[in-house]
Amino acid sequence: MMPEPCPCGLPATYLACCGRYHAGPLAGQAPTPEALMRSRYSAFVKDLRDYLLSTWHPSTRPPRIEAPEPGLKWLGLTVRQAGMAGQDRGTVDFVARSKLGGRAHRLHEISAFVREGGRWYYVDAPPNAGLMPD
Known about the structure:
About 20% of the residues lie in helices and about 35% in strands. The chain is of the alpha+beta class. It has a single domain (about 20-134), classed as Nuclear Transport Factor 2, Chain: A (Roll). The model has no long low-confidence stretch (mean pLDDT about 90).
């Protein structure tokens, strides 16, 4: 049986890429904002809501994440740019593609990340980010 490719799009297996941040000794320990963002995308693909909440900064984290809509299919991730603003802040500009009910969608977001206690957390995205028909 072939190893499962990572949903984030990097040329690696899931277990060698985002899976190592979802479970095991490196759980929640993504080393950069981009690695955390990719692992969060993979967590959306795999419906790992506990991981999504645990990597969301407490100041902006919702009380829960709803289950994905039935039939939602994630189609791919493109990281357009990743940058740092000092040692403990970063941003990732990305596009995530999905399909629901026969309609393709794009989520374009510039996400903000912060490192606290040695761990990276997703903070938020600007208000103009959002889901758009493809």
